[in-house]
Amino acid sequence: MSAAPSYAQDGTMAHLPPLIDCHVHFREPGLEHKGDIASESTAAYYGGISAACDMPNTAPPTQSIAALADKVARATATAHADCRLFFFFGATAEEHLKELEELWTNPTHADLKQHCCGLKLYLDNSTGNMKSSVAVTEKAFELCGRLQIVLVAHCEQSQINDAAAAQHPYDGPASHSLRRPAESEAASVQEAIAFARQHRTPLHLAHVSTAQSLDAVRETRLADPTLPLTCEVTPHHLFLTTEDYSCCGARVKVNPPVRLPQHHEALWAGLLDGTVDCVGTDHAPHTLDEKNTAGQPPSGMPAIEVVVPLLLTVVAGRWPHPTAPRPTALVEAAQRGRTLRMEDIVRVLHTNPNRIFHLGEPSAPHRSFDLSCAWTVVGTELHSKCRWTPYEGWQLLGRAVSH
Ligand code: NCD
Ligand code: ZN
Ligand code: ZN
């Protein structure tokens, strides 16, 4: 552990090292009606996020060196000057893994490789339908173990999801949580960890949403302490539950789904006890028209502009959800003297993602946050192209200072 101060504070101003969102979908190329690199990196800037790792489920997907080079060129041309972008490679076929191996091992690509933060695998379909077969999954863990590439896994198990979906026909957004149950994520997490242990793969579990997933991380760390196993939680799983379908419907439909309050409690406990390494937003803009469709709306929601203010509000001792009670995990931790602190924000949004994804961001304070800024979230005033938010009307305390 480094003893260096992680942030500076004078009065109500906090100065933080570059905050990193290790899970975003900026939608370019191909899905620019939802968002693009310029709009979403601007939202990041106003949210106080200085670097973001973009996922490969674009159109075309980032599954070749050429597709990666195209994204890097687009980011160089249009990203907000104060938001650095990194890109995950994707793979649904063996030829994509060959491209990744070429990127990693051929010195010709050394510059491009600097912009690639790892491989993203979808173990079940999500937006973009990039589910990886068992054969490709096993080869991906082997390759990433051999070359020590960080493998980020979207863990849900398709057999369990398919069976649950057959049992619970789609019947509005709330049915989504029944159709993609907690056991599905838990089973997939176990499978991913088993592959990682076999191939010594650096494994990062994306958007974990269940108590069982965090228990699996704890157990594996005890059983196999040298395995580089890390995990992230999203703001929506920290601040929203199945109770929020009643107010927000399709806007809170996401993969993995929002969960029952017991999982929400476990995520807060895991954030405070250090089991959770990163908060990644899974910033996934869709248009309101898409969300309001009469059929099944797409999964995902935006968050990059509000994640830091949400956490700063908790650091300030307030619980921002307008109707749900403060999680018992937070109340009980506070009784033991453990509250969410500024150091936790730096840990989950700077130190850990910077280390896990080898981003080389400087650790000196860089961005200022006004901790006394009280504001109300209004979707149309945010900068994501989609112009809506699941946190509409929430009152937050703390905001990045922008110029
Ligand atoms: C993401 C998207 O829309 O790209 N959707 C989601 O529900 N989380 C894809 C993903 O992260 O699985
Ligand atoms: Zn995902
Ligand atoms: Zn995602």
From TrEMBL:
Q: Which Gene3D superfamilies match?
A: Metal-dependent hydrolases
Q: Which InterPro entries match?
A: DHOase/Allantoinase_Hydrolase, DHOase_cat, Dihydroorotase_CS, Metal-dep_hydrolase_composite, Metal_Hydrolase
Q: Name one GO biological process term.
A: purine nucleobase catabolic process
- Record keywords: Secreted included? no
Q: Which cofactor does it need?
A: Zn(2+)
- Under the GO molecular function aspect, what terms does this record hold? allantoinase activity; metal ion binding
Q: What is the protein's name according to its record?
A: Putative Dihydroorotase
Q: What is the lineage of its organism?
A: Eukaryota, Discoba, Euglenozoa, Kinetoplastea, Metakinetoplastina
